[in-house]
Design brief:
alpha/beta, globular, disordered N terminus
């Protein structure tokens, strides 16, 4: 709803009546008819826009001003999993050897190799590097069959979830860790957060999916109809992230050609044939087979509501034409049933962070969430990774931005005043 006054139909009719009366004043000899008196109805009250987020917050981690992120070396981890695949991970940490929580991106988008040789392209975790001076380790792990991780790229599924689970527990067991991990990311990087919410490793204390897939079938099909933008996702994504030597979010490219051999060695895999056959079957029939149910977080969460799961900060851009806002339908209701702390942030950005590090994500409408990285995320992570009472849970459960740029608060999702109307096609 806009905060500005918009001309309503009833006002338009009144103005037209006044104009007609004025035109008739000079016509004929009779006395002009009295002008109609229009008493406008009392306009509906605007929703309570609420207090700024910062007004709820307190006792956030202090910033270590002497920590320079650019001077911190990357640490490399080869991570064993029960599937036999060894995953490739890279982490930056602040000074110190114990008690550090980890903010982690599980990604298929990194090409592999030493991130210090990929500065021009960046890395999947660069957006969260600002948290390092607040005492957080930050890094990323390549999903199986991508980058320099072994195994087969599976587009989700039980084996991929198991690998993510094992990687989280392995990193949480490092001597410098406090045993608490947050999974976060945009797009597939956020979809892995949803996968971790399903299987819920004990070390994962919160997840932050952003513009993320909750149901791979619904990402490919709408009510059984193939989506023109995302249909055949399983087929075309394998060459992009499973076989290509250069990552979409940094990686070896021309910077470390010696890694080409190790990167390519584990990527072609026999299981990929079965995965591609499922994709082709889906394109032809649009059936939701067991392959798709294995990748449906809504169904999986609903089937195990009693399982202990981590709190969730769910983030979605209204302007996202890739992973569209409909991905929230059904999923947030399922998450709410689990009883975990849930906050929802819907805003007018595209397929990107609410606060873009490049300034390009929020060009459709300004201002965007300038408080996202070092206020909202810091308060959320301090609460669940460090056990600090930051006041974030006193803030409304939902913040949403209307198309005129106004932020409003709701106490829950879906909003309590929401009504449903059924429309029938003639």
């Amino acid at each position: 709803m806009s905060s500005s006054l918009r001309l309503q139909p009833r006002f338009g009719a009144a103005i037209a009546s006044v104009l007609v009366s004025l035109l008739l004043l000079g016509c004929g000899n009779s006395s002009p008819a009295p002008l109609p008196v229009v008493v406008p109805e009392t306009p509906a009250l605007l929703p309570d826009l609420g207090r700024p987020l910062a007004s709820y917050l307190h006792d956030l981690s202090p910033k270590m001003e002497d920590v320079v992120v650019a001077d911190i070396a990357w640490e490399h981890y080869s991570i064993p999993t029960r599937s036999g695949a060894v995953l490739d991970g890279w982490i930056k940490r602040p000074p110190g050897e114990f008690g550090q929580p980890l903010v982690l991106v599980f990604t298929p988008y990194y090409g592999g190799g030493d991130p210090s040789l990929s500065l021009a392209l960046g890395t999947p975790s660069d957006g969260f590097a600002s948290l390092i001076p607040y005492g957080y380790a930050v890094g990323f792990v390549s999903v199986g069959g991508t980058g320099n991780s072994g195994g087969c790229f599976r587009n989700g599924g039980a084996i991929e979830r198991q690998q993510l689970y094992d990687a989280a527990e392995y990193l949480a067991s490092q001597t410098w860790s406090n045993g608490a991990i947050a999974s976060i990311g945009v797009s597939y990087d956020g979809t892995t957060s949803n996968e971790l919410f399903v299987d819920a490793p004990p070390s994962v204390k919160t997840v932050v999916p952003m513009e993320a897939i909750s149901d791979f079938y619904r990402y490919n099909y709408n009510n059984g109809m193939l989506r023109s933008s995302n249909g055949a996702f399983t087929t075309y994504y394998y060459p992009i992230v499973g076989l290509a030597p250069v990552g979409l979010e940094g990686g070896i490219g021309p910077t470390e050609p010696a890694s080409y051999v190790t990167e390519l060695a584990g990527e072609p895999c026999a299981d990929q044939l079965a995965i591609q056959l499922e994709s082709v079957h889906g394109i032809v029939t649009a059936d939701k087979t067991p392959y798709w149910y294995e990748r449906d977080a809504i169904t999986l969460v609903e089937a195990s509501l009693d399982q202990k799961r981590p709190p969730m900060l769910f983030i979605q851009g209204y302007q996202d034409a890739n992973v569209d806002p409909l991905m929230a339908n059904g999923y947030l209701e399922a998450v709410k049933k689990t009883g975990v702390p849930l906050q929802v942030l819907f805003g007018q950005w595209v397929h990107a962070y609410p606060q873009s590090t490049s300034g390009g994500a929020c060009e459709l409408l300004a201002p965007c969430r300038g408080d996202f990285f070092e206020t909202y995320l810091l308060a959320w992570f301090d609460q669940f990774l460090k056990g600090r009472d930051t006041g974030i849970l006193d803030a409304p459960d939902m913040q949403t931005q209307t198309d005129d740029g106004i932020w409003r608060h709701e106490e829950s999702w879906p909003p309590p005043q929401l009504t449903t109307e059924t429309l029938h096609l003639s």
